[in-house]
Each structure stands twice: as C-alpha cells, then as structure tokens.
C-alpha cells in the first residue's frame, strides 16, 4: 500500500507553501506506508525530484522535502513488503528526459512486457519498479502525438492491473494529470488551488470539498479547472454534482471502520499471521539462521517491551523443541551479557520498528565482540536488520497503535517457526514431529479469528468490572509466563491499572500477600496437561483468599469450574499459546482503557518507536 | 447522500404495553426526549442533508415530534402497508430516486453520533458497495438480533437473520445503521428482505463493517429502555437545576442530577443521582429518588416514595409509600399507596436482553428486573408485584 498526493494552484492562493502542504499531506498518509518517500515539482528549470529511502520525517531532515519549489507538486509514501526499499525505487519516477514525473499506488501487471518494448525503443530505466514504465510510456507516445493529455490517456489505456496515478510534466506545467482503477483517489477543491490524493485525510487540512473518483476515470486538474473523463467511453463526467462536504475529522477516516487503530490491529491479526507465515515458509534467511544457531556456542536473544516477551517465549520454546538453552535478556541490560559473549555466539535481536535504540546498542555491543546477529523486524531494511548478518521479517504491516498487538503475535510466529526449524536441523525433532508442530502454526490465523469471535464481547463485559480495579495479577507457568507478562504490560500501558505478571509458583513467595477479597487474578492456562495440573494449586491458593479468578484457557480445560470468568480458547496445541492466549488479554486491556475514558492509541508517556536510551 | 430514518417499527409484545394507540415506541421518553430525537439528531449532526422519515400511517405524532427536534427539513413518508423493514424502505423509494447512496438509520436506536461519523468517513474513504454498523455480540443476547459474519479485512461475509452462534469468524449484531446504494431498492422490490439483500451484496461485492462498541441501544424490549436510562444517566456530570424549577430548602440533591423547568421538589426529599426529573413533575415530601431514576414530564410522585433504576413515563402518578426499582411505569399509570415492586429475578426468560452490569464480586451477579406497568393501568393499594411481571395497559392489577 502506498499514499499519493498532488497539488496545483496559483502561487498567491496557497494557504501554506506548496512543499509544506504536500509534506504535511504525506505525514497524514503515513499509515499507508513509510519506508521510502519522495516529492516532485515542475519549476522553470524542469522537473525537480527529492526522494529516498527512510521515513518521511527522516527524509525531511535529510532532503527537506517541504522545501521543494513550484506551484505544482506531487508526493508519495511507500510501504515495501517485497524487496528492500531504496533511493532509486522511491517515487516519483521520471522519463528519460526528466520532463515527466509519476507517482503511483497499485500494481501494473503487464509492466515487464511494456518495459521490454520500451527498452527496445531505447528508453533507459533506473529502477526495478513497475511504476517506471508509466513515464517512459507517456514519453514514447508523446514523441509521436505532441499532445500530452492524449498521450497520457493512451498510455493509461495500455496498463493492466490496479493504479492510482498522478503525473506532472514540464510540457504542461499547470496541470496535474490523474487516472484511477482499483486503487483509491480523490480530488480536493480549494480556493485557487486543487489537490489529488489517495485519501481524504491528506487534504482535510486544506479543504472539506471532495470528489471521490471512480474506476476508469481519468483527467486533470489545474488551479481553476477540473476535467474528468470516463476512459471506458470518453464521456466527460459532470463533476459538480459529485462534490461532497466532509464533516468529519482526519483520524476518523483512516481507521478502517474501527474506533481505534489498536482495535483495527487486533482484528488484522489473522491476516498478519497468514502473510507472515507465507513469508517465513519461503524465506531462505530461516535456513541460514538455523545454520548459524546450530553451530553457535551460546545463543542470546534480546528486545524491549513486547519484543522482549517474544524473546522470552522463544527461549522457552528453544529449550523444549531444540533442546538448546537460550539466554533472553532485556535490551537495555545488554552490557551484563555482552561482556561474556564471544565470536562463536549468536544474538537474535527482536524489534518491531528495527530502530529501538536499546536493541540497537545491544546489537552493536555484541557485534564488537564478533558475535553473529540475526534480526527479527517488521520494517524492511531498518537500522537493526541493516546492521545484522541476517534478517527475518514479520509481515504484520504498519502498526500505528502504540500498544503492540499484531507485531507480537507475528514475532512469536516467526520465532516458533525458527525454533522448530532449529529442532529439526539439530536432530532434536524428527521430520514428522517438526511437520506436526508446523501444522499447528499453519492453523494460527484460523484459531485467532475464532478466539476473537468467542471473546470480544466477553472482554467488553468484563472491562466494566475491571475498570474499577487498581491492581491485577497475571499468573501462569512455563510457556504461559511470557504471555502473562505481555497481558500485564497491555493493561498497564493503555488502561493505567497496575498489573504484575509472575510465574504462578512464585506468587506464594510474596505477591500473594496483596490478594484480598475480589482481587483480580488472571490465569493464563496453556493447553498442556502438566501445566494445567500445576496451575490448579495456584488457582486454589488465590481463590482461598477471595480473589476473583479469570481464566484464559482452552475449551477442553479441566479448570473451568474454578474460574469466575472464563475466556474460552478454541482447542488447539500449546505451541500456539503466544498467539491464542494473548488475544483475550489484548481485548480486555483495550476495552478497559476505553471504559476508563482513555484513548488506547495514545497512551501517556509512551512512543511507538523508542529511539532513545 | 440523503438520510432515511425508519420510525414505524412495531414494538415487541413486552414493550407494547407502554405504547398507547396512535403512538409508536420511538415516542417513549428517555431523559425528556422521545427516542426518535436521539436517532434523527445523531444522524443529522453527521450528515447534514435531506431527511426522509418513514412512519406508520395514523402515527403522525412521530413526524410532529421528530420535526420539533430536527436540525434539517424532514420529508414525511407515512407507510400505509406492510410491517417489515424492506417494506418501510420501499415506501420511501420515490424520494430516493435522485441519490446514489442513502444513509439508513433505524429510528428506535439511541446511538452516539461518533458511530455514524465512523460509518460515513469509512464509507467515503474505502468506497465499498455498502457500509453497515456492527456491534460486538454477547452470546447470551444474540438470539434477538440479526447477525453479521465479518472477515479479517473488516468486510461482511454473511448476514444471518437468526442463527446459531457460528464459531469461525467474529460475529456481530447488525447495528441498524447503514449506507446503502440506491440500487438495493431493486433487490427489495424483488422481494428480498434487507438482511437478504445485504447478504447478497456481501457475497458478490464489498460490504464494509464498522466496528462500534460505544453507546448503542436498540429499543426493542423493556430492558433496553432501562439500559438507555442507565447509559445516558451515566454520562451526566454535575447538577443542572432549571431557574424555573422549585426546590424546597430542606431537599437534598446530590450527584449528577437534572431538574427541568417547573418541576417541584418538596421538603425533605433526597435526590441521589444520577437522576433526571422532567418538566412540571412533582416530587412529594420525604421521597427518595435514587440512582438511575428517570422521571419524565408531569409525573406526580407523592410523599414517602422510593424510586431507583426506573423509567417513569409522563403523567404517571404515585400516591405514597411506593417502592419502584428496575421498573418501567407507563404513561398515565396510577400506583396507589403501599406498593412494592420486587426486583430479583431467578428466571432470565422474564427479562429479554437484560444486561447484568457486573456486580462487585465476579461470578456472583444478581439479576434484577422489576415490573413493566402498562399505560393507564392502576395498581391498587397494598400490592406487591413479582419481579419480571408485565402488566397490561388499561387494567386494574389484581394479584
């Protein structure tokens, strides 16, 4: 998914400098992707382009995107899921003579065929993108016709696939050309200027008058004119009656029909898991990672916050499945562990953003010792993957909510896959055992969808009670402990209720002193007979002191009679504990936060990416 | 995009005892306003456009009341025939001819405008064929609603009119708010019900679901009316007493309370909010008006009465020493002296859609539902009414 914006107008009519307007519009489109970006304009010197790899804010510091001159400006922000983002692959793309600049969202299916033809005609391509065929194709047709709009229309009619395209050219420097098919595009009508964008939030700061374009519509806007035609029958579209007034806010529009990003992201987990699974199944980096891990003397794994819980989960899985002891530690504590690390060791660094400063510092300290580094990240080619020997990616897509949800489940999916592969690689698991475990991981999306279905309204109901509580314990054993820790973190960070997680066996060594009548204790019960048996005693200890017991347990559990409230998980396998059992806890934290009147997307004192120590 | 509000729906038999002839459930009062006020104004705040109001022919008061509160002009459409939703939509089809899409809202919904903002903003930015509001469903309540099965992309996969609880995908209640293309009218004309038409659209194209967990109450049963009182009074802050109300010096008013104009609060009355006292109502000496009491206009409460978590509809009359809890008292009902409504129910069937706001101790919730007293009924002196009882209108109650 990418975001595009274009702006044209009379110099004296813009409410802000056009470069600043486009830059701010791009920030509004950041939810559609943020791994590379660029802007382009037409000036008296021709087409000017500023673009590169990195987030919009980083590029602003590096290139000053908002400084771009001109009364006609386009901008683009990109999210790469395949292949690394790069300076040359960033949009806008231009033709051979730098007279035409194009931004595009979508996929041009016949780009290879068009590219081959255009190369045969002498066009020089600079990038590997499908988009670059568009400026060259227009250029080629324009050479013959000498009419830019006609050339643009003919070029668009040759494209197969989906597109929202915006074009500027020094041949007609006062017009912004656009075309739409299967990717969103709207026109915003300003006073003395007009805009084109992927989405309404990008322009809402400048106008509330909007036309939503339909498929196969093509045309151009200038400072005082709009032409829209239907490519199918060349009919001119009467656009005046299509103008709508937007009464809502910028934020409302980008949450995909959910009141908060966090809820959207909770619901996106089945899709994120499917895509991550698709990625790891084919990722050669997993094979290389297994080779590195198999011959390592010591294996360390580190992360911060939620990522640390994924690390802890991996360390337990590795002991069970690969019979390998792994040292998991919190990233900011790296110096304790780095001092003993040595060349034959491996460090796995887990970071959603790939930019977490604590994790990056840990990486560098271990690297100095000659330790091989494996990164697990959600952002292709971010700092941590770049500085690592090997990178494995989750494919959760952009996560806007500060509280991690889909990135946690996808991280643990990748790490579970890795530990099975390692178990098989080292002979701790037979091929059929490994296949058996992988079979369960392949069911993760289905189990998650079912878990949401069973528990969402229950979490909403329980939140009515939970919102009045001041303190909560999360208890579990074995593989469930990191999941209890993650659940407690969720409640703390968005509902501002004190929550602590312990291995259940440890609870009687201190924490139980606080338990009194109606004290909430959440038990995470992995689907594992031995753990269940061991947890029974802990539940009884808490119950005897009047605690209210909330169970997160499979439908097959033998403990349900002990629960005052039961989040029922579809029966599956303990290897899915991190994915299935965290769901009700995410939902409970979300609804408790909302019922306490907070915005779960913007927890106080927290930032999505922590780039300071 | 035009607005279409359907306000001609029939009440369930439990709720119908509160609705006099020529009236409709959307005219039941909550915090001084008819239910149709909440739906019409929420919609108009979000989509300032022509509003078509479909009501049942003969129930013109619905139109008059909606118009009284409306922020925009209203086009009235009296529905002569049929009682289903799709017949109600078809009744307005001529008025919808000049629009591509229309915003459909059920008139018996109490809903926050934010839900409708989310609906329209998502519809315009994602451009699906249709958009529908979806409410997370508590399994024990879903049997009284239409249901949506939603996929992981937030789009509707299926629409179920009434179905066992499927366990593959998240299941949501159909929220009674939609943005629909005008061509759906062709499907309705062919005899599709609204859920069938939506289901057909969902299977062939894209029907976006809007996930909403804020204020949303579909007034279908008495428990819904009590829930509406609870939810709206929960949002009250501070004390607001009209300049034109009269409160005697020895009355005690505590917590969030609204007292409307020309209301009279007698000596030694205690009002412990959140509570609402309607226009021109009279609260006699030594009465105790407790939390979540909604006393509508021109109600007369005599001396030594106690009211909690109840809706008292206009012109009702309480003599003295009446205890009413978790109950609804219909318009012009008369409760003589020494009456108690019991409210702890053992049989949940007696209170469809009853919400059990979780009690202090988990697993030990007490389910409470008092009495629904029909309009114009009379409860004689020295009566004890069993929990969950529904008393017919125009009757003299006998135990």
Which characteristics define this entry?
heterodimer; A: 613 residues; alpha/beta; Glutamine Phosphoribosylpyrophosphate, subunit 1, domain 1; Rossmann fold; 3 domains; eight-stranded antiparallel beta sheet; 19 helices; 37% helix; globular; B: 399 residues; Spore Coat Polysaccharide Biosynthesis Protein SpsA, Chain A; UDP N-Acetylglucosamine Acyltransferase, domain 1; 2 domains; nine-stranded mixed beta sheet; eight-stranded parallel beta sheet; 8 helices; 35 strands
Tell me about this structure.
Chain A has 19 helices and 25 strands. Chain A folds into 3 domains: 2-254, Glutamine Phosphoribosylpyrophosphate, subunit 1, domain 1; 255-442, Rossmann fold (3-Layer(aba) Sandwich), CATH 3.40.50; 452-613, Rossmann fold, CATH 3.40.50. In chain A, helix 15 (444-466) runs parallel beside helix 19 (582-595). Chain A has 613 residues and is an alpha/beta fold. In chain A, a hairpin with a 4-residue loop joins strand 13 (226-230) and strand 14 (235-236). Chain A has an 8-stranded antiparallel beta sheet with strand order 3-2-4-1-10-9-11-15, with helices on one face. Chain A is globular, with a radius of gyration of 27 Å. With 399 residues, chain B is α/β, with parallel strands linked by helices. Chain B folds into 2 domains: 2-220, Spore Coat Polysaccharide Biosynthesis Protein SpsA, Chain A (Alpha-Beta Complex), CATH 3.90.550; 224-391, UDP N-Acetylglucosamine Acyltransferase, domain 1 (3 Solenoid), CATH 2.160.10.10. Helices cover 19% and strands 30% of the residues of chain B. Chain B contains 8 helices and 35 strands. In chain B, strands 1, 4, 5, 6, 8, 9, 10, 11 and 12 form a 9-stranded mixed beta sheet that branches. In chain B, strands 14-17-20-23-26-29-32-35 form an 8-stranded parallel beta sheet, with helices on one face. The N and C termini of chain B lie far apart (54 Å). The mean pLDDT of chain B is 91.
